[in-house]
Amino acid sequence: MAVTLDVDYCRSHFPNLSNGWVYMENAGGSYLPQAVIDKTMTYMTECRTQPLPHHAPGAQAKDGIDAGQQGMADMLGVSQNELVFGANTTINFYVLAQALRAKMSNGDEVIVTNQDHEANVGCWRRLSQNGITIKEWQVDTNTGLLRIEDLKKLITDRTKVICFTHASNVVAATNDVAAISKLAHESGVLVCVDGVAYCPHAALHLKEWGVDFYGFSLYKMYGPHLGVLYCKSGVEEYIGNQNHFFLEGSMPAMMNPGGRLYCSVFSVAGICDYIKSVYEHHFGKDDGCSPRDRYCKVFDLFGEHEEKLSNAVIDYLRSKPRVRILGPATGDRHVRMPTIAFVVDGIKPIDIIKAVSHSKIAMGGGYHFYSARLIETMSLADGVARVSMVHYNTLDEVKLLCEALEPLLR
Question: Full-prediction pTM beyond 0.90?
Answer without folding.
Answer: yes
